[in-house]
Specification:
There is one protein chain. With 344 residues, the chain is an alpha/beta fold. It is built from 9 helices and 13 strands. Strands 1-2-5-4-7-3 form a 6-stranded mixed β-sheet, sandwiched between helices. The two termini are 32 Å apart.
């Protein structure tokens, strides 16, 4: 699954990686694709501000057109197809079959992604602020499971969820509309009701403290680029270079154009690494990066199909230390977990 906090710089990176995997998840997607970049104000023609480059102006106009078209389609999804929340709702499921307009929104709002993967996503997530709908994420290959929904709605990742594997990994067909400012308690209460009533999945969702193995991240963040000289390169570009992104891998770097990725702050990075190795990471870093970081998840096999041990915690964290300067110490701690408990 590819997760990226909502910004265009981050999203474009994630979408370019996602194109290689029909089964990967993208959360969140751009809204709309490249068009979400802010459109710069046009300056008057004078000596200090020469006429804009025609190519740049054309690109800006195109981005504006995509943005406006997407907004119109989203408004129609709200008005005619139920992609909205009532005043007291914080999360809702839109049941398939989906309207044709949804596929139109995907093609218009995310042209770069639609070019890479022509068929519409199996499921999408949207944010609702009480007035407007905003695209947030999408997944290909199968619908979101409970883990994916909790990640989109509350940023709770798999390593912080406990429950029967067949329950938390069960695909749940449908799109999701989420109120992003809602409290955890509200979201869990309504999601629990949806699971019980609409899907006949009798479970309770509640937080509890559990003593678990964790890795505690400490130290001063200092980025050192990994050398990609030995990595398999994109066959289309045949390009090798030093990378300014963090490579998440264990045994060996995988293909540079496969595996997914994202961007965000240090907390988000550690959450992704924890999900990758399936062990929680506790953030006690003293000196943090001043800006967001970018990361790439290396695939579990090379292009020849040979398996790679790229989720081994010790190997992954050793390589992460080499790139960030942070240390990771294995400890046992009582941490908050979301418990998915079947109702007998």
């Amino acid at each position: 699954m590819i997760r990226i906090n909502l910004s265009i710089r981050r999203v474009l990176f994630g979408l370019s990686l996602a194109a290689c995997f029909l089964s990967s998840q993208i959360t969140p997607a751009a809204e709309p694709d490249a068009a979400s970049t802010s459109v710069p104000e046009e300056k008057g023609r004078d000596e200090k501000n020469p006429p804009a480059d025609p190519a740049k102006k054309s690109s800006t106009n195109r981005l504006r057109e995509i943005r406006d078209s997407s907004a119109s389609i989203l408004e129609e999804l709200v008005e005619k197809h139920g992609y909205r929340l009532d005043e007291n709702q914080v999360i809702a499921r839109v049941v398939p079959p989906f309207p044709e307009l949804r596929a139109t929104y995907y093609k218009v709002g995310h042209p770069g992604q639609a070019k890479a993967i022509q068929r519409p996503p199996n499921a999408m997530t949207f944010f609702w602020d009480g007035k407007r709908l905003k695209g947030w994420g999408m997944t290909f290959g199968e619908p979101y499971n409970l883990v994916g929904i909790l990640d989109s709605a509350l940023k709770i990742k798999k390593q912080d969820i406990e429950g029967p594997e067949d329950v938390i990994n069960k695909p749940i067909p449908g799109d999701w509309v989420i109120r992003p400012e809602a409290s955890e308690e509200q979201v869990l209460k309504e999601l629990e009701a949806i699971l019980q009533r609409q899907l006949e999945l009798p479970v309770r969702l509640a937080f509890a403290k559990r003593v678990r193995t964790v890795y505690v991240a400490r130290g001063k963040y200092q980025f050192t680029a990994v050398d990609l000289e030995d990595a398999e390169t994109d066959q289309k570009t045949q390009k090798k270079s030093k990378s300014d992104r963090i490579e998440i891998y264990g045994e060996k770097l995988g293909p540079t154009d496969l595996g997914g990725g994202g961007a965000g702050d240090l907390k988000e990075l550690l959450g992704w690494v924890g999900r990758w190795i399936e062990v929680p990471l506790i953030d006690e870093v003293e000196e943090r990066p001043s800006e967001d970081v970018v990361w790439h998840l290396n695939d579990m096999q090379d292009k020849r199909g040979n398996p790679l041990d790229n989720r081994n915690p010790e190997l992954v964290l050793k390589n992460l230390t080499a790139q960030t300067g942070l240390t990771f110490k294995k400890e046992y701690r009582a941490i908050r977990r979301l418990i998915v408990e079947p109702i007998e």
